[in-house]
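Problem 12. The chain below contains 263 residues. Write out its predicted structure in token notation.
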Amino acid sequence: MLITRRDGAGARRVPDELIVEEPMEIRLDDVVVTTTMRTPGHDFELAAGFCFTEGLLEGAPVTAVRYCGSGSAVGTEFNVVTVETGGVASVPTARLGPTTSSCGLCGTASLDDLRRRLDPLPPDVRGTIPLDVLATVPEGAREAQGLFARTGAVHAAVAFTADGEPTLIREDIGRHNAVDKVIGRLLLDGRLPAWQDGSPPGLFISGRASFELVQKAWAAGFTAVVAVSAPSALAVSTARAAGLTLAGFVRGDKVNIYAPERL
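Solution.
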């Protein structure tokens, strides 16, 4: 797209690359769950990851993921995706409004609800990633954010190893979408919970660490969450309840550890 850019040399017309944002309807066994504004790409991962992190699968295996709608995938412009469990998962309750790229609580009413749905991390996997490793994660993640480098308008979620090496990156206009895409990929590959042998135990997120993102990391079994900005108070309480490490303001050699309460 051509835009007008003004700088010290004056105003001129130049090409610029903008991120795409489109709605995607997510269905579970052909029942509408929600509509999210997302950056197209890795749509099956996003739909599967969302259904998993929101507890809609209830342990049911995903048997297929497909584009669908009232007509063909082309007819719905590839903006409707259904996750199939063969009817094993309970019929979901649809959200009344769309999920936006700045979504907050997103359907989970309270930390007590999470405690009823999720078990804390096993004690033997907690705190297994050294703090000096956590401090190196943002730089490695930044080098992998190709879409951000071109547009400056997307968030990233990156799964990383216990050595701090990024192994899986997804970018999206919504932070929660990027996280769901990572988790959806791990789910479809049979690599959850993330603390199991051979899976990346850490999750990096660009921006702040909200309650919603920490609860998604907990659901997926990540043992650590690294954010470049601050967490919310509820995010810290959630991380402590889960038993996962929550690091914020990770920049250079500086790291703030918000969970656990004491090292």
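Discussion. The chain is about 25% helix and 25% strand. Students who got a different answer should revisit the alignment rule from Section 12.3.
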